[in-house]
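Table S7 (text form). Paired inputs.
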Amino acid sequence: MSGTNDNTGSAYTFFAVSDLTPKVTTWDPTKGLIHSRVSNWDGTCNSTDPSGCVAGAIVTATSKLHPDAAVPYTILYTSGSSTTSDGKFYILNVDEGDYVAVSASSPGWGFQTRTYVTHANSVSENQVKGTALPVVAANASNSGTGPLATLTATETSGTFSGSIKYTNDLSDPTSSPTVHSFFESSPSSPLVLPLSSGNTTLKYYACNSHNICGNVGTSSYSVYSVAANESGTGSGTLSSSTTGVSCSSGTSCSGNLLGGTSAVITAAAAPGSTLSSWSGCTSVSGNQCNLTVSSNSTVTATFTPSVQNLLTTYAQGAGSGSVSSNPGGISYSYPAANTGSATLASVALTANANTGSTATWSGSCDSTTGNGSATATCSISSMNVPKTATATFSPLSCGNEIVSIAGTSYYYDTIHEAFFGVNADGQSIRMQAVDITESPNYAGSNSINLQGGFDCNYGSNSGFTTIHGIMTFGGGSVTVENVIVQ
């Protein structure tokens, strides 16, 4: 006689005692017997085909009638202390009407919990099924759209079909309210996640279609920005052979890469230029920059003209100053000298005017800055032919005389003349930021201020006045500011 329990759906069968005692000699026929197998959920486990039976499983049981008993009933196997290749186990002498929850354990496997309702002189037979624990493999790679993490779930006991659950906020995915879930129908359709700049930690596990869940795995990744630029007065192009780093118009490259991966940027000089150097690279091989990414990185290729020619500079004008070049080769002071030359591929020229003068460049300059001021520059990017440039030094031109008394409308050509205009203590004689050649003599009795370095409008004195001569003070007192006496 056989049937199905109304409450649990577990199967049971009534046997004659003579049929069972050869198998279980210690069974009390007034009690119930659980006689079943531990099997692979996705396989077949019976006496005809035991291929799906699980060997090495240890069966555990809990009892509703005996909740405090660690081992409420005797558990036997075909032999030994765990299931053999037939997967069989026996739970003996179960009390009438007891609910017995049975599961199994085996390294790398997960099993359902099967509940049996037992009856006297009857045998319950439904199998305890399980699968190998799903395993999630995490791999990261660079892509054209940025670094990606790929999570693939597999199980050794069959083809995985189920869900991958993960978090990216360091929380436990088995309990976190921020857990994400992704259904993977097969290993050919894994979970692919874009990785943002900075540090990302993924925690993940998988549950198959039988709700057998694997262990939690953790993978951490770092993503850094990579940039490549060019500099110098020459020209060329940049290209990348690294997935994830792209180059725009051949002059700059950018992208995000996984930490620990490598980038290769190649520089190609244009005709008439040469690649003179790389900076920021882990190593350089010819025209290639090799970068091992461990932080946000920028590399720079410097191009310089490959053709050199003679550059001749001239200085002229009624003012004075100095001329210099970068790279070096030209350096002189005007009017002591009025020309200098050097053979160069490219150059930046600087004219520094002395106090009271301004500087202006003209000639073969590709660009200039500061013309008409104290410092002017001339840039020549390519010396493909011999070239010339001229620095003109002009006296600083102001509408007023170079000396005045503050608070008055009086202006003077010399300091000595201004001394005669002082008639009270505390008056200030102001001088423009020019060179003055005289030897002034103050013989008055007042306390005065002698202030140099003013602009043409006497609004501020951020410069200096240079007096070439001897200053004599025969009376009173003088406070001096921004004045150089030579």
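Next pair, protein 2 of 2.
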Amino acid sequence: MERRRLVPDLRIGAEDRGAAYQFTEIRQVVASDSLVFVLSAEVSDIRVFDRRGQLVRTIGRRGGGPGEFGEVSAIGLHGDTLWTIDNGLRRISYFATTGALLSASRLPALSADLGRADQRYFAYPMAVLRDGSLLGFGGTSAQAIATGQVTATPLLHLANAAAPSDTIGWVPIVNEQMTLRWRGGMIYRIQPFSDAPLTASAPGAGMLFIAQRFAHNGVGAPAVRIIALRVNGDTAWTRQLPYVPRRLDAHLVDSVRSSLVRAMSQRIGAADVERALFVPEFATPISAILAGEDGTLWIAWEGTGDATRFTVLGADGVPVAEVTAPAETRLRSVGHGIAWGEALDENDVPSLVRFQVIAGQ
């Protein structure tokens, strides 16, 4: 398998260039041949940069009118059309890359009964396919998970914005959420050492990926299992990736546990926090998966060094490369020999970095 590495050749993010070039958290990046579109946490618009890193325009702004955004959860490109999914306004909008609004469609409002026995799931779109149909998942309430009503969530193909036409598959949510009970009710937190499966979508290819990354329990040969699903629910391929298990750092566990106990001390005792915290003997093997624009799937392995190791699977599920990236970089977009990532400096201030993917270690 070929060894590759990421070499930076462009950085966007400088305090002396104004607010448009500053980020607090980069959530998603999509790129065309000439432009890169950036969805970040601190603003309500989408920033558009050219391949030299110069700001070209912004698309949208906060508000409820046409072309405005409430809470954008996903963006993507099909040709020269940018799509956005806004779960705040329950709306999907389509823009030309020039920023002009082309069209919009409504999503149904969230049900007040979400999570009850007769209303356990609600369709949340997460990607727009080329034919206008949607990929999504069945969201539910934290209470439904805590009470055991829901132990898995469906992956959905939505023929339109109103109703699912097919259930593509199911994703177990065991060890995903910790539930802390006290006299006044319940508090929900994401498990810090969760080994719940990860998902990624490739809307251009009409594919969904599930990564089963359960922490090794000491039995059998440890492996991560990747499942590629077509939108009709058929399995395109599966792949087992063996790995050497690494024991979870006891000092890290103690630090996380102590932080939780301090944060909850006014409501919940240390023993209750201990019971709710999922602490496997071995660390979860992978931290993220990212579907590439070229049909590849990038799998980020957990590590403790100064680099992150990725296994890259081709469109047929066969491993094609091992790639190393700086540990402080979180990849947001990959494909065709280019990667875009969020890189943190020594003060944890992020910038957007373009990398060339080149041969060699």
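The longest strand covers residues 2-12.
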